[in-house]
Amino acid sequence: MAKTRYIVYVDDDEDDRELMADVFAAISNFIFITFPDGASFFEYLEDLPETALPSLVILDINMPTLKGTDILVQLKATDAYKDIPVVMFSTGATPQDQQICKQLNIDIVSKPTNFEDVVEMANTLKSYCAR
């Protein structure tokens, strides 16, 4: 039996979460789960067995409370989560955000703004997924 594969997307913008979920549902066999903030995402992770960790985590950089880079640093500092592939979405990363991502070898990609760009991005992101 094949392992169920999950992609998690953390973004405070509900419209962006819905658009990404719709696109991934249409073009992939991944289960796509969204969260509006880092706190709810970490609560989700705590309840998961290690065998059910996400194949990919997509983090929006610019969010209130916990920025995407804050979430990234916490993930990579936790042994159980450090090997989960992560991609950062940004409409404008600060030099500090860029430095953090560079140090952790994490790609920052421009956040897609229309349906066609989201489809193209989703197809690209599937290649980042853990096997």
Alpha carbon gap, first and last residue: 14 Å
Mean pLDDT: 88
Largest sheet: 5 strands, parallel
* Element-level helix/strand string: EHEHEHEHEH
Q: Please state how the strands of the largest beta sheet are arranged side by side.
A: 2-1-3-4-5
CATH fold annotation: Rossmann fold
By DSSP (H or I, 4+ residues per run), the number of helices equals 5
Secondary-structure arrangement, i.e. CATH architecture: 3-Layer(aba) Sandwich
Name given to the CATH homologous superfamily: Response regulator
| Apparent shape | globular
Number of strands: 5
How would you describe the overall organization of this protein?
There is one protein chain. By secondary structure, the chain is α/β, with parallel strands linked by helices. The chain has one domain: Rossmann fold (3-Layer(aba) Sandwich). Helices cover 40% and strands 18% of the residues. It has a five-stranded parallel beta sheet with strand order 2-1-3-4-5, sandwiched between helices. It is globular. The model has no long low-confidence stretch (mean pLDDT 88).
